[in-house]
Amino acid sequence: MLPDNLREHPVAAAVEAFDADAVSAGKYDRKELTLETPPAKLVSVCGFLKYDRKFVRLSTVTAVDRYPAEPRFEVVYHLHAIEPHQRLRLKCRLRGEDPVIESVTSVWRSADWYEREVFDLFGIQFVNHPDLRRILLPDDWEGHPLRKDYPVTGTRV
Question: Is residue 110 part of a domain?
Fold first, then answer.
C-alpha cells in the first residue's frame, strides 16, 4: 500500500494505479523516490515502469545484506527515465534462508551482468536469468564475500 505522503508523487501514484499491491513501502527524500515492491510483483512493475512511465535505463542492480535482521537482503534497482529526466530506486526484500528473485533481464537486457555480480557476491539467485554464473570470482570460489557472515580472515599459521 502506498504511503499517504507519496500519493501526490506522479510515478508512485501511477504504480499504485497499475497495481494496488505493487508498493509495500516507499519514501521521497532528497528529491529521489524510493519504492519497495514485493518480489512477486517485480517483473510486472518493471515492465510498467519501462513501457508506460519511460524508465528505459536500468542504471544498476545491487544488494544490501542486513544480517542478522530479517528479511536479510534488499535487492536495489536504480532506474532512469531520460525524457522526462527522473530517477527511481526500486527495492525488494528477500529472506536470508533462500534468497531468490525473478530476473528482470526480460525487461532490461542490461540487467544481465548486474544480476550476475549480485549473485556472485551475495549469493542471490535470479530465476530465469539467461546465464547465471560467477562474473568476478573464479568458478571454484566458495561462498559469497559481500555477505556479512562471510569469514574475512583465513586460517592463521
Answer: no
Question: Is residue 16 assigned to a domain?
Answer: yes
Instruction: Show the cell assigned to 112.
Output: 544481465
> Based on the structure, what is the number of domains in the chain?
1
- Cβ atoms of 111 and 103 within 8 Å: the answer is yes
Decide if pLDDT at 5 tops 90: no
Confidence of residue 82 (pLDDT cuts 50, 70, 90): very high
The residues that bridge with 127 in the sheet, in sequence order, are 102
> What pLDDT, in 10s, does the model give residues 106-150?
999 999 999 999 999 999 999 999 999 999 999 999 999 999 999
Please enumerate, as own/partner, the contacts of 12-17 that have beta carbons within 8 Å and a separation of 24 or more: 14/48, 14/52, 14/53, 15/45, 15/48, 15/49, 15/53
Establish if 146 belongs to a structural domain: no
b/e per residue, 89-121, with b = 16+ CB within 10 A?
Answer: bbbbbbebeebebbbbbebbeebbebbbbbbbb
Domain that holds residue 91: 4-98
User: Is residue 150, in this structure, part of any structural domain at all?
Assistant: no
